[in-house]
Amino acid sequence: MTDAPYDLYYWPSIQGRGEFVRLALEEAGAPYTDVARGPGGMAAMMKILGGGAHGIPPFAPPFLVSGALTIAQTANILHFLAPRHGLVPDDEGARLAANQLMLTLADFVNEVHDTHHPVATGLYYEDQKPEAARRAHGFTTERMPKFLGYFEGILERAKGRERHLIGASTSYVDLALFQVLSGLEYAFPRVLKKLAPTLPRLTALATRVTERPRIAAYLASERRLPFNEQGIFRHYPELDLAAKH
């Protein structure tokens, strides 16, 4: 564990993938600066992305600077932070299992993104609405239930420790799953409401995360940006209704 402050670099106006890192840092009570939200922060972030400091440049935000280290990719950042702040069990098998679950969540998040940008990220949503409707239909009827059912099954098989995905206390994967469920509640409220009766353990886990003192304080603060239509989780009513087409 370390008390040294971290510098987190991510786009300043959205939760996005940076939010998974913020939640871990907030739960840990670790001091950090959300650099791009401060004066000159965007310029500093772009300098690192351009290879102007800290060795091999990241491909994209988020990335974390800790001393001489620059760590990119959300799952990789969390794999670095978690053992230093008690957010994953000590044994190697559990750490690998947590990383496996986080990578699965990353795949899930990518599929969420592709519901509103199925053709190209460089096009506006309005330029690909017919394709988005088709993609969202498949996501809400097949992929979303499959991913959520998988994580519900992980908790169901835990037998006596089903309060957490890994180990006997809150891990970064629990926090990440809460974030995904929060995003889905924003983006696909009708679909998630329909699935909710089949996901009692996931629902209970997400509620427990919101009740953790540091997380509750963070969620009530200005540091927690609201979801919006520039981030990964976007609410377009016509896509939320896709499951009914």
From the structure above, extract its key features:
2 domains; 245 residues; 10 helices; alpha+beta; 4 strands; 4-stranded mixed sheet; single chain; Glutaredoxin; Glutathione S-transferase Yfyf (Class Pi), Chain A, domain 2
Task: Give the terminus-to-terminus CA distance.
Answer: 51 Å
CATH class annotation of the largest domain: Mainly Alpha
Q: Please state how the strands of the largest beta sheet are arranged side by side.
A: 2-1-3-4
Mean of the pLDDT scores?
Answer: 94
Description:
With 245 residues, this protein is α+β, with helices and mostly antiparallel strands. The protein folds into two domains: 79 residues, Glutaredoxin; 153 residues, Glutathione S-transferase Yfyf (Class Pi), Chain A, domain 2 (Up-down Bundle). 52% of the residues lie in helices and 6% in strands. It has ten helices and four strands, in the order βαβαββαααααααα. Strands 2-1-3-4 form a four-stranded mixed β-sheet, with helices on one face. A hairpin with a 2-residue loop joins strand 3 and strand 4. It starts with 5 loop residues before the first strand and ends in a 5-residue tail after the last helix. The mean pLDDT is 94.
